[in-house]
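[worker-b] picked up task from shared queue
[worker-b] task type: protein-ligand structure
[worker-b] ligand name resolved to nicotinamide-adenine-dinucleotide; SMILES cross-checked against name lookup, match
[worker-b] sequence length check passed
[worker-b] input payload:
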Amino acid sequence: MRILVTGHQGYIGSVMTRYLAAQGHDVVGLDTAFFGDCVFGRNDDRTPAINKDVRDVTADDLRGFDAVVHLAALANDPLGDLNPDWTYDINHRASVRLAQAAKAAGVERFVFSSSCSMYGAPGWPMGTSRRSTCATAAPTASPRICGPTSSSTT
Ligand SMILES: NC(=O)c1ccc[n+]([C@@H]2O[C@H](COP(=O)([O-])OP(=O)(O)OC[C@H]3O[C@@H](n4cnc5c(N)ncnc54)[C@H](O)[C@@H]3O)[C@@H](O)[C@H]2O)c1
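[worker-b] inference finished, payload out:
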């Protein structure tokens, strides 16, 4: 399969691209390289890559792929707290647009990474409602739980 991995330079993506390539897939990465200067050790990744922000991806970028694995995100809590609206913009709004663009481009599979943060934090009462989860979940997690109108709750 021809697979586009967004966020392919990250912690998970940098392993996943090699794993998928080793399985015989034709893998292309897409990343802004937000942390391009901060790699540990050797960076010998030769994955063909598109240097682009997921917020700018269109259906034209996705045509010809069989699958999109969507890992690009602001994925840690301190970064999410810095400006929650940036996090909503990338983790929620851009992810929805990317999925819609993938569908429009005829991509048959779309894998969206989740996060255990969606299930809350230790000490949260059992049965915490979706509404209260939206209000209290970390900005990196709540965009995956809540709709766009709830962005003001975090
Ligand atoms: N690492 C974990 O233990 C873990 C656990 C559960 C879920 N996840 C989820 O898996 C996904 C990947 O996590 P990770 O740990 O590899 O994150 P990471 O921060 O290491 O990598 C994210 C990558 O996405 C890129 N990126 C961020 N915003 C972008 C944008 N707007 N356009 C294009 N590229 C952009 C960054 O440059 C980075 O290379 C995230 O959605 C994260 O929430 C991670």
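[worker-b] attaching auto-annotations
[worker-b] The first strand starts at residue 2 and ends at 6.
[worker-b] releasing lock
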